[in-house]
Amino acid sequence: MTTVIKRSKIAAAVVGVMALTGVSVAAASNTSLSQLQSEHMQTARAQAASQERIDSLFEQSRELLADYRQVVAQYEALKLYNDHVQRLIDDQNAQLESLQRQIDGIEETRQGVVPLMYKMIDALDEFVQLDIPIHREQRERRVERLREIMTRSDVTDSEKFRQIVEAYQIEMDYGVGLVAYQGTLQYGGQDIAVDYFHMGRVAFMAQSLDMRNAWLWDNDNREWLRVEDSFLSPLTQAIRMSRRQTAYDVVRLPIFAAESAE
């Protein structure tokens, strides 16, 4: 009887151990499944975030490509214009060299040079009156000084000719580069303090010192035209570039299209 009881207790103990082992295995299985599900969700979220970054980088690359193509087109247009201006400058330099050769023989050709100088001054005066009004008063005073020295006996003909050629060179320089200077604009019966700006002779503009208004010179009609507010910020940037206050960059400014020759 004692042996049977002992065997029954041992059997019960074994069953109990097996039951506890089954519970542990089941608990471990549930824990592993939850961990796998959590890791799967984290992986999915990471993949979604990576895809968002890829989409963002792709969109940025498309925008950069569009900007690059626009800059290239603007560069090509400016290069064509600069090549055209360079040809004009080369031709003007050739004319100056020809005039310099005439100066070398000034004593022998004085009778022909003096009338030539008067014609050059008249031509310069006419050009100033017809050109865009960059430094208008200063240029008019320069022409008057040339007329004055032509009547002075204490100035040699060679010096007179040198000053005339120098005036022509100054006029050439107005057609190159970005230049800004302050002055007074007469508009609507008022005198307005402005920053004048010209890009060679392509565009001549003015901006009020408070940067709230801007104007573009219409040389055909000889008048100032008010420009849209969208050009205020680009004009301010162009003025700063001309004064070396910021790096050179492409800006959008209004210009009059060149008329085709008949």
UniProtKB/TrEMBL annotation:
Keywords: Coiled coil, Signal. The keyword Signal applies. It holds the Pfam family DUF3450. Residues 1-26 form the signal peptide. The keyword Glycoprotein does not apply. Residues 82-109 form a coiled coil. This is DUF3450 domain-containing protein.
